[in-house]
Specification:
- The chain is α+β, with helices and mostly antiparallel strands.
- It folds into 3 domains: 63 residues, no CATH class; 159 residues, no CATH class; 92 residues.
- It contains 13 helices and 11 strands.
- The strands form 4 sheets. A 3-stranded antiparallel β-sheet has the order 1-2-3. A 3-stranded mixed β-sheet has the order 4-6-5, with no helix packed on it.
- A hairpin with a 2-residue loop joins strand 1 and strand 2.
- The longest helix is centred in the middle third of the chain and has 15 residues.
């Protein structure tokens, strides 16, 4: 039997840990006030809890991680949020989607009534679309919910005032570091005057970064500054547009339809998807014998076509800007998600 005095996998060798090993019955020892040694029967269980160790270290050294989040977090334009709220009555891009409670047997893709269950995919799409970021533009970021556990509520899971993009190296801290949580919650209140209905209005924390990265511009404003070209449903009369919007709402309620699956693929791609990739995914998701024709039918208002839901910019296919808010307010799910 290897003793705990000689087993290198159990005995710490770092010179900074100077306290003796716990004797049986002592229970718990601490290094920097973080529990790392626990007796379990006749054996010592050694653990170092990273978040606890980091929190203790930042307190000892008077380091404020909220400063890093303030410098690097990517926030949605308040103008975009207010426009979304006015147009759809909700600040959520996918108001009938929430995260699955995996521990309770739920799984991504399931329907609970009319609510679709997600991991974090819809929230990720929502924040990147609201930021106007092309596919692949945000490298090394994660979509983080500002208020804990709100991802399990369809009102808040894809609500753009409740999501911020944070560098992946810092993202885990938003779930565990109280200082960061309080700073993010108050920043969301500053920008959007929003907080969950069930929570009290956030108060300014004792320590709060004085400077924050400015929100990204409203994508609608950026489009207006681009070289002029048609960005609404081309050739569509008001009556044609109303008819198409009615079709889109109907398709959204029927996830088994091929047209639903095709729109879902493009809707989940943020600022667009390369045409050949789209055709390949449509073929996989629908089994269509003519995936090129199915995609093409969603790019025109010609007779017998689905209608112009997509715009084509070179090789990139995206939701037509004139329909983006409507499509974003509905729930979509593709077979290849």
């Amino acid at each position: 039997m290897v003793s705990k005095d000689t087993d290198p996998l159990v005995r710490p060798t770092h010179h900074a840990i100077r306290h003796p090993w716990p004797r049986k019955g002592e229970g718990v020892r601490h290094f920097l006030n973080v529990r790392i040694f626990v007796w379990k029967g006749n054996h010592v269980d050694s653990r170092i809890v990273a978040t606890d160790l980091l929190a203790e270290s930042t307190r000892r050294r008077d380091i404020h991680l909220s400063l890093l989040v303030a410098d690097t977090g990517l926030w949605v334009s308040p103008d975009y949020y207010r426009r979304l709220l006015a147009d759809t009555g909700t600040g959520a891009l996918f108001p009938r989607v929430r995260r699955a409670r995996v521990g309770q047997g739920e799984a991504r893709g399931q329907l609970v009534g009319d609510i679709r269950l997600d991991d974090n995919s819809y929230a990720n799409v929502a924040i990147k679309r609201a930021l106007g970021l092309p596919r692949g533009a945000a490298v090394g970021f994660e979509a983080c919910h500002i208020w804990p556990l709100t991802c399990y509520d369809e009102r808040y899971h894809t609500l753009v005032a409740n999501i911020v993009l944070i560098p992946r190296a810092l993202a885990g801290l938003s779930d565990h570091e109280a200082e960061i949580q309080r700073a993010l919650q108050y920043r969301a209140f500053e920008l959007y005057e929003w907080w969950p209905d069930e929570q009290p209005r956030p108060e300014k924390p004792d320590f709060y970064p004085a400077e924050w990265r400015d929100p990204l511009p409203d994508p609608a404003t950026v489009r207006k500054l681009r070289p002029s070209r048609e960005r609404t449903a081309r050739g569509a009369t008001a009556e044609t547009q109303r008819t198409l919007e009615g079709r889109i709402r109907s398709w959204a309620e029927q996830p088994n339809l091929n047209v639903h699956k095709i729109i879902a693929i493009v809707a989940s791609a943020g600022d667009g998807i390369e045409r050949n990739e789209l055709v390949g995914r449509v073929c996989e998701a629908t089994g269509s014998k003519n995936p090129y024709g199915a995609v093409a039918s969603l790019t025109t208002n010609a007779a017998n076509a689905y209608g112009r839901v997509f715009e084509v910019d070179g090789k990139i296919v995206r939701i037509d800007p004139g329909l983006a808010q409507l499509v974003g307010s509905l729930s979509w799910d593709s077979a290849d998600r």
